[in-house]
TrEMBL record:
PANTHER family: LARGE RIBOSOMAL RNA SUBUNIT ACCUMULATION PROTEIN YCED HOMOLOG 1, CHLOROPLASTIC (PTHR34374)
Species this protein is from: Streptomyces buecherae
InterPro entries: YceD
Composition bias, Basic and acidic residues: 191-208
Protein name: DUF177 domain-containing protein
Residue ranges, annotated region (Disordered): 186-208
């Protein structure tokens, strides 16, 4: 059974002022510390970083429609050269929080699919938890392949040096060890053929 919502949590919001009156609006802003796991492997919002939230709460027949924007600093690594990078994230979201006693038919009217109810978020004692919605919005807004710059050349595959720091960096062409072995074998065969070449009679140093 899920734990009850704590109104003291920074990501829990109270909708009682709306009074279940369709059309009632409430706007609010809040600065919160980012929860953990707000990102993907290469980039994300560091836990404890400041997230600025601007929300619009609107009372409708089925519940409260929450529309908002989240702004937060991103930290991560370039996938090409592994250099640290930072930028600002702005993620928009919209979610319906249904009243627990809302008519089931109104919640599934758009799709006609009862499975939709499993994904429905509900108000609890006029409170709602924004964390799952915020997490989805942030993760979906992140670049899957973050780069420090669009034309980042990455790292040298041979020595790992960052190519952007040394545009003229290169290595002498290495000889494939397999070809080197064949080349040595070919030279040995050629030397043997020279040794076995018959000499003209005039070339024999023992002939007089």
């Amino acid at each position: 059974m899920n734990a009850r919502l704590d109104h003291r949590s920074p990501l829990v919001f109270d909708t009682r002022e709306l009074g279940r009156s369709p059309g009632a609006l409430k706007r609010l802003s809040r600065s919160i510390e980012a929860p953990g796991d707000l990102g993907i492997e290469m980039i994300g919002v560091r836990k404890g970083a400041t997230v600025e939230l601007d929300l619009r709460l609107e009372s409708v027949m089925e519940g409260v429609l929450v529309t908002g924007t989240a702004r937060a600093p991103l930290t991560g690594e370039c996938v090409r050269c592994l250099e640290p990078l930072g930028r600002e994230l702005e993620a928009e979201f919209q979610e319906m929080y249904s009243y627990p006693d809302a008519d089931d038919r109104s919640r599934t009217a758009d799709t006609g699919d009862d499975a939709e109810e499993e994904d429905t978020l509900f108000l609890e004692d006029d409170l709602f938890d924004l964390e799952p919605v915020l997490r989805d919005a942030v993760v979906l807004s992140l670049p899957l392949q973050p780069v420090c710059q669009e034309d980042c050349p990455g790292l040298c595959p041979e020595c790992g040096v960052r190519l952007a720091d040394d545009p003229d960096h290169h290595h002498q062409e290495a000889v494939d060890i397999r070809w080197a072995a064949l080349q040595g074998l070919a030279e040995t065969v050629q030397d043997g053929e020279k040794d076995n070449t018959p000499r003209a009679s005039g070339d024999d140093p023992q002939e007089k």
